[in-house]
TrEMBL record:
Keywords: Isomerase, Rotamase. The keyword Isomerase applies. Signal peptide: none annotated. Pfam families: FKBP_C, FKBP_N. This is Peptidyl-prolyl cis-trans isomerase. GO terms for molecular function: isomerase activity. It comes from the Bacteria. It catalyses: [protein]-peptidylproline (omega=180) = [protein]-peptidylproline (omega=0). Residues 118-204 form the PPIase FKBP-type domain. Its EC number is 5.2.1.8.
């Protein structure tokens, strides 16, 4: 359709664009736009469906299973990549590995008190994926962050209690001490190992 001149056609086309974008954001292999259009038209005009509810339900189950398997495979790859990175990193000079699997290196030693789980702290930090992609940074925002020591990911909670005020550590955090199988937002995928530069400014 190329002759889209009326206000109603513009609005209708906009609805189609929005629906198409939603499909493009969450596609599956073999998605058939012509079939989507046929189902949309049948529902809108009240026509008899060409595919039965049982067939549709069965198709949804199969496609959903395929998508879950694909996501599981991606997660396994991400976990393996993170584990390989941490295994190699652990062999480098200056890297300390704790019993939990947390890795850190001391960039600045610091000389103040160390916080406990019940404390609240002010920090500056810079967080990246293991490929260097920045996902969060208080330095970039120009504003330190304040939070309870026990209110952050496990890798942070453990590391903060090792750090004297004034210290700056680089943390290498396995996925099980970070956001695990859930990930966080769009940037941190499930099973991602993370790297943080953390500077402990003050115990509040």
């Amino acid at each position: 359709m190329s002759d889209l001149t009326t206000l109603e056609q513009h609005a209708s086309y906009g609805i189609g664009l929005q629906m198409g974008q939603q499909l493009a954001d969450n596609p599956f292999d073999g998605l058939d736009i012509a079939a989507v259009a046929a189902g949309l038209a049948a529902a809108f005009y009240g026509d008899e469906p060409e595919v039965s509810e049982d067939q549709i339900r069965a198709a949804f189950q199969v496609i959903s299973g395929r998508m879950q398997e694909a996501e599981s495979a991606k997660a396994q790859v991400a976990a393996a990549v993170g584990e390989a990175f941490l295994a190699e990193n652990a062999t480098k000079a200056g890297i300390v590995v704790t019993e939990s699997g947390l890795q850190y290196e001391v960039l600045t030693a610091g000389s103040g008190a160390k916080p406990t789980r019940s404390d609240k702290v002010r920090t500056h930090y810079h967080g990246t994926l293991i490929d260097g992609t920045v996902f969060d940074s208080s330095y970039n925002r120009g504003q330190p962050a304040e939070f309870p020591v026990s209110g952050v990911i496990a890798g942070w909670t453990e590391a903060l209690q090792l750090m004297p005020v004034g210290a700056k550590y680089r943390l290498y955090i396995p996925h099980n001490l970070a956001y695990g199988e859930r990930g966080a937002g769009g940037a941190i995928k499930p099973y991602s190992a993370l790297i943080f530069d953390v500077e402990l400014l003050e115990i509040l």
